[in-house]
Design brief:
The protein is of the alpha+beta class. It is 24% helix and 24% strand. Strands 12, 13, 14, 15, 16, 17, 18, 19 and 20 form a 9-stranded antiparallel sheet that branches.
Length: 446
Amino acid sequence: MKKRTFIKLSSAVITGSMISPVIDWTQDDKLTNWAGNLIYSTNKLNNPTSIEQVKNFIKAHNKFKMLGTRHCFNTIADSKNEFLSLSNLDLGITIDRDNLTVTVAAGIRYGQLAEDLYKNGFALHNLASLPHISVAGACATATHGSGNKNGNLSTAVAAMEIINASGDLVVLSRKKDPEQFYGAVVNLGALGIVIKITLHIQPTFMVRQDVYENLAMQQLESHFDQIMGAGYSVSLFTDWQNKNFSEVWIKQKIINGVDLTIANDFYGAKPATKNLHPIAEISAENCTVQMGVPGPWHERLPHFKMGFTPSSGKELQSEYFIPRDLVYKAISAVEKLHEKITPHLLISEIRTIDADNLWMSPCYKQQSAAIHFTWKQDWPAVKKLLPLIEEALEPFNARPHWGKLFTISAARIKSLYEKLPDFQQLVKDYDPTGKFRNEFLERNIF
Ligand SMILES: Cc1cc2nc3c(=O)[nH]c(=O)nc-3n(C[C@H](O)[C@H](O)[C@H](O)COP(=O)(O)OP(=O)(O)OC[C@H]3O[C@@H](n4cnc5c(N)ncnc54)[C@H](O)[C@@H]3O)c2cc1C
């Protein structure tokens, strides 16, 4: 994001005590996503400060989209008309200590929520690689971290309050409305405005993070489950050169204060001797602390610190979810394309995600592994590469990440989501006139 743009957005957030004035961006000060690869189709951004204002806005507008923290790389959040952001809607953070839940305004960033939870002695089950994203935006796209037994972030949702296209508040909970709830959590921004989200929490915990260097890809053939199960959350990084994972990040829970020792040899990989960035050439200053130094969950589970620009900044991302038992074959299929991939790549990451029951989650009823690509910001080149990767991954029923770049056809997506017809119906019930639909939803869902 350009500095000027950032300053304008921040001041809108700070001073916007009323809905509207609509922030109408000037021609040279366009509203873009985080990576800057996408200029949104309108720059009209509304920041309501009360639920009443949100309801009034819905009633007064025929077509608009909700914006979270703008971290999606594709057009899922785009609108040709207007945007509504909840970044100004502060509804506080309510912790229910008896039921182990926290209720927040849906626009809050995980980083802010995590700080508050930690101060109160609580934790979330997992975080994505960066803490800067909004809870509503992350849950809408099934954003995930890693861990064989960790579901994506939306699996922590216990209840939601959504304002539908008529301006009515719908309260959904896992306990009371299981069927609709499972359809609504990963909602792709199609059902309405998620105002509040209640998340399951647990007592706070400490984590140590250790990095190993140079794990031979072939080790995954016989040891994938052991390697990915070596910690609470494990990530493998590769640039697809030399059939090698340059880095293995292992995040382990420290139970009852007992520190853990780490092996000097991890399937042939060796412990790093200093903190590393996933892209070895970049300074590790932005990265969460490694070298086994214990720290609170929210300062170890993401790869990037809250106060810093995550990852490389000027980048593109794609990611595909594979049934976990097929992942070695899928990785081998991608590896065959390494000569084409590596020149355009910053880094790739392999993670695991537990199965869930959320209709539009790429991990619906499927223990999954995800193959992620952080690309250099060269869309013409990446656009040519993605169909090759998708073709190689087709035999493994690869499902694309909803918030990242893909070229898989709508017909193929339909065949990959058995609950898609039910989701379409749910969307029609919440939004009969297509108020929240955009070109992305029309193309991929309808
Ligand atoms: C550097 C970087 C690292 C990333 N790392 C990861 C990672 O580790 N794991 C992973 O899975 N993904 C990752 N992502 C992708 C990112 O988590 C998702 O794109 C996520 O959806 C971004 O959330 P957001 O708040 O920015 O959403 P936005 O891009 O603003 O919006 C996403 C969708 O949510 C909808 N939405 C937003 N707010 C609301 C609301 N209140 N009510 C209803 N709908 C709403 C929007 O309409 C849109 O459809 C990464 C992205 C970046 C840029």
